[in-house]
């Protein structure tokens, strides 16, 4: 048994897929399958039930999962102890982030950090809110940027990102300076399926407004293109909207709606000096 096999095992558990586990660890699907096969052969049990929908833990796999997590947790602590003796002049930081943040805000943070700590390697893992939080809990990433972090991780608040209504350029509501939730009630609605839609759905429910949902869209650029084409309207975080949007109207909401963006770790008491320095640099950059 090797630590890399355990990392692959945990990545398959987290993603539910041999292919996605390979993407996460920069390994091929066949390499992941071979490593899990070798581990199963050595242990004498089947760890995953494979089917066309992915991979699911067997009972035997469930029993060893907690032990694998504990081993990798202690391994990380050993690495952190070594990093502490070196200071913050080397090492690697694995960063999780959702697409709109990694495209619009993260580059500035990375540039500022590298200016102070050029010897630290930075690796980016991009995914949905749920994926980033799962990566933090599983130790796949050292820290992650999340919207509305749960209480299951330690986090610090960095900024508030307001939601806005986005409309086709010639939509009648474009004449208004502010748009209410009620005014969007009967409009064909395009829902952004990335995690941030939960807050939007909750806002509609709180106002007792029915939502005329037409499509659910995963990509930020796709939903803006569909609005531009006149297919419907949407409510999205302002961060995903271009500085000079073309052929769409962007209006603030009444009442205002925000997502809280924070930086999260599994435990603030267990971060390495490099990760602590990164957190401090991120807070300073966004202050």
TrEMBL record:
Q: Which CDD domains match?
A: PBP2_LTTR_substrate
A Pfam family that the UniProt record links to this protein: LysR_substrate
Where does the HTH lysR-type domain lie?
1-58
Q: Which UniProt keywords are given for this protein, alphabetically ordered? A: DNA-binding, Transcription, Transcription regulation
Q: Which PROSITE patterns does the UniProt entry name for this protein?
A: HTH_LYSR
Presence of the UniProt keyword Transcription in the record: yes
Keyword Transcription present in the record's keywords: the answer is yes
The family note in this entry says:
Belongs to the LysR transcriptional regulatory family.
The protein depicted here goes by the name LysR family transcriptional regulator
* Originating species: Paenibacillus aurantiacus
Upper taxonomic lineage: Bacteria, Bacillati, Bacillota, Bacilli, Bacillales
């Amino acid at each position: 048994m090797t630590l890399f096999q355990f990392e692959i095992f945990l990545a398959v558990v987290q993603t539910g897929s041999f292919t996605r586990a390979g993407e996460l660890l920069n390994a091929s699907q066949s390499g992941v399958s071979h490593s899990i096969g070798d581990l199963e052969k050595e242990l004498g049990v089947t760890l995953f039930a494979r089917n066309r929908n992915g991979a699911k833990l067997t009972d035997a796999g469930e029993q060893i999962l907690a032990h694998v997590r504990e081993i990798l947790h202690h391994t990380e602590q050993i690495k952190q102890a070594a990093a502490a003796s070196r200071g913050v002049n080397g090492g690697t930081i694995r960063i999780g982030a959702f697409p709109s943040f990694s495209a619009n805000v993260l580059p500035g943070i990375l540039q500022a950090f590298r200016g102070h700590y050029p010897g630290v390697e930075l690796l980016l893992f991009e995914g949905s809110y749920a994926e980033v939080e799962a990566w933090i809990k599983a130790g796949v990433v050292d820290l992650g940027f999340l919207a509305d972090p749960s209480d299951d991780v330690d986090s610090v608040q960095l900024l508030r990102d307001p939601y806005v209504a986005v409309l086709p350029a010639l939509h009648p509501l474009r004449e208004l300076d502010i748009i209410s939730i009620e005014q969007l009630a009967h409009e064909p609605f395009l829902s952004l399926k990335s995690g941030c839609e939960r807050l939007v759905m909750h806002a509609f429910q709180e106002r007792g407004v029915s939502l005329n949902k037409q499509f659910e869209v995963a990509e930020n650029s796709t939903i803006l293109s569909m609005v531009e084409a006149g297919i419907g309207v949407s409510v999205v975080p302002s961060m995903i909207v271009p500085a000079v949007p073309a052929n769409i109207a962007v209006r603030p909401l009444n009442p205002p709606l925000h997502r809280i963006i924070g930086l999260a770790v599994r435990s603030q008491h267990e971060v390495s000096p490099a990760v602590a320095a990164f957190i401090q640099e991120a807070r300073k950059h966004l202050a």
